[in-house]
């Protein structure tokens, strides 16, 4: 089934910008048989297409030189600002091939708008939404052959922007690069859709009040690496962070937002306090749960309450979500003072139903009643 309310064409404004991209094809295209082999079972984020989209920014000129060029290493001066002060933001999106061979992406304006908000927080320039979407479309059209056709696979798009000016002073850079790279992707977790275990960390925070928590910037992810490593050493797949202000309420997993499904059927997720990423998947799930008549509650979720609700069985399901991971069931939650299996430890019913519905929309298997899809190729 194809989508009913999706945008079959990009706006004339976006198409106009796509046509501004100078395309310089790679002189070393991946041979067809090699590409097919690479597309067979790509490990998340390890295989890249032949090209990348790029737009430069100079304080005096604004955004200039829209281009598609050969994918490859960037030559950076050792003094490049991003290497020292981490002035960088990024996004995560996917391109999905539908049964009729067309290629679509999901709510790209949301990612573009979030990148502009993240950029603002990092004192980087805002890239207009149309430029952002056009860059994704130009790259996907150039590397169309890299969009996987196998079920549940997609072409993961990674738009990012960084301070490229070489200097050591601490001030916003006057030169910035925006790029989009693309990586064929299968499942984010190697075991496929199976419940993950989460360590609730009361020792480290990924963000604090007034910090960069709601921005999608590399520094937040860097701050999550050590806690993640320590949790892995304890045998856990992921870490859930508490708020940095009081160390008492749930925030997010670093790379994913978190949801609880209660035994009364209501769906709860930490409210956006300024230090939680405003996930596009998160907001789509809230909408799909509402459509099902579920009570949806965005609120502060105290850890003490969660522990009590896990003990009493009030928490029926827990899941995490993000573009890369889609919706991932959580089978076990533990921290210094508790260790709980969620339900039977198997994926929850609503978790899997919403996962199926969301992916059916993304892959065009069900009508896109919210008009979330945009056709790229
Ligand atoms: C995404 O879900 O797209 C992200 O950017 C998270 C990242 C940890 C893979």
TrEMBL record:
<keyword id="KW-0032">Aminotransferase</keyword>
<comment type="pathway">
    <text>Amino-acid biosynthesis; L-valine biosynthesis; L-valine from pyruvate: step 4/4.</text>
</comment>
<keyword id="KW-0100">Branched-chain amino acid biosynthesis</keyword>
<keyword id="KW-0663">Pyridoxal phosphate</keyword>
<dbReference type="InterPro" id="IPR036038">
    <property type="entry name" value="Aminotransferase-like"/>
</dbReference>
<dbReference type="Pfam" id="PF01063">
    <property type="entry name" value="Aminotran_4"/>
</dbReference>
<dbReference type="GO" id="GO:0009097">
    <property type="term" value="P:isoleucine biosynthetic process"/>
</dbReference>
<dbReference type="GO" id="GO:0009099">
    <property type="term" value="P:L-valine biosynthetic process"/>
</dbReference>
<dbReference type="GO" id="GO:0052654">
    <property type="term" value="F:L-leucine-2-oxoglutarate transaminase activity"/>
</dbReference>
<protein>
    <recommendedName>
        <fullName>Branched-chain-amino-acid aminotransferase</fullName>
        <ecNumber>2.6.1.42</ecNumber>
    </recommendedName>
</protein>
<dbReference type="InterPro" id="IPR033939">
    <property type="entry name" value="BCAT_family"/>
</dbReference>
<dbReference type="InterPro" id="IPR018300">
    <property type="entry name" value="Aminotrans_IV_CS"/>
</dbReference>
<dbReference type="InterPro" id="IPR043131">
    <property type="entry name" value="BCAT-like_N"/>
</dbReference>
<dbReference type="GO" id="GO:0052655">
    <property type="term" value="F:L-valine-2-oxoglutarate transaminase activity"/>
</dbReference>
<dbReference type="GO" id="GO:0009098">
    <property type="term" value="P:L-leucine biosynthetic process"/>
</dbReference>
<dbReference type="InterPro" id="IPR001544">
    <property type="entry name" value="Aminotrans_IV"/>
</dbReference>
<dbReference type="GO" id="GO:0052656">
    <property type="term" value="F:L-isoleucine-2-oxoglutarate transaminase activity"/>
</dbReference>
<comment type="similarity">
    <text>Belongs to the class-IV pyridoxal-phosphate-dependent aminotransferase family.</text>
</comment>
<dbReference type="InterPro" id="IPR005786">
    <property type="entry name" value="B_amino_transII"/>
</dbReference>
<dbReference type="InterPro" id="IPR043132">
    <property type="entry name" value="BCAT-like_C"/>
</dbReference>
<keyword id="KW-0028">Amino-acid biosynthesis</keyword>
<keyword id="KW-0808">Transferase</keyword>
<feature type="modified residue" description="N6-(pyridoxal phosphate)lysine">
    <location>
        <position position="216"/>
    </location>
</feature>
<comment type="pathway">
    <text>Amino-acid biosynthesis; L-leucine biosynthesis; L-leucine from 3-methyl-2-oxobutanoate: step 4/4.</text>
</comment>
């Amino acid at each position: 089934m194809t989508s009913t309310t999706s945008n079959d064409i990009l706006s004339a404004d976006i198409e106009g910008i796509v046509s501004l991209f100078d395309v310089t094809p790679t002189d070393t295209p991946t041979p067809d048989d090699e590409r097919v082999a690479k597309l067979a079972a790509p490990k998340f984020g390890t295989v890249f297409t032949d090209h990348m989209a790029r737009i430069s920014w100079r304080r005096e000129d604004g955004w200039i030189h829209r281009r598609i060029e050969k994918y490859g290493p960037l030559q950076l001066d050792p003094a490049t600002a991003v290497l020292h002060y981490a002035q960088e933001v990024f996004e995560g999106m996917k391109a999905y091939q539908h049964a009729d061979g067309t290629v679509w992406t999901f709510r790209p304006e949301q990612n573009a708008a979030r990148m502009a908000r993240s950029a603002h927080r990092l004192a980087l320039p805002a890239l207009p939404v149309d430029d952002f979407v056009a860059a994704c479309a130009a790259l996907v059209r150039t590397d169309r052959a890299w969009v996987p056709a196998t079920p549940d696979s997609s072409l993961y798009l990674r738009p990012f922007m960084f301070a490229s000016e070489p200097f050591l002073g601490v001030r916003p850079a006057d030169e910035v690069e925006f790029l989009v790279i693309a990586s064929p992707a299968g499942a984010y977790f190697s075991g496929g859709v199976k419940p993950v275990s989460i360590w609730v960390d009361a020792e480290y925070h990924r963000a604090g009040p007034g910090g960069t928590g709601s921005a999608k910037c590399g520094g937040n992810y860097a701050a999550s690496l050590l806690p993640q490593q320590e949790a892995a050493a304890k045998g856990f797949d992921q870490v859930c962070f508490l708020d940095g202000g009081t160390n008492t309420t749930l925030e997010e997993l670093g790379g994913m937002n978190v949801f609880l499904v209660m035994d009364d059927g209501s769906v709860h997720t930490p409210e956006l306090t300024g230090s939680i990423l405003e996930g596009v998947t998160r907001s789509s799930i809230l909408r799909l749960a509402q459509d099902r008549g579920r009570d949806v509650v965005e609120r502060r979720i105290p850890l003490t309450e969660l522990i009590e609700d896990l003990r009493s069985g009030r928490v029926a399901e827990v899941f995490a979500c993000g573009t890369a991971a889609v919706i991932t069931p959580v089978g076990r939650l533990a921290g210094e003072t508790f260790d709980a299996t969620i339900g039977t430890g198997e994926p929850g019913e609503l978790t899997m139903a919403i996962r199926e519905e969301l992916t059916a929309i993304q892959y065009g298997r069900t009508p896109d009643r919210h008009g979330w899809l945009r056709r790229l190729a």
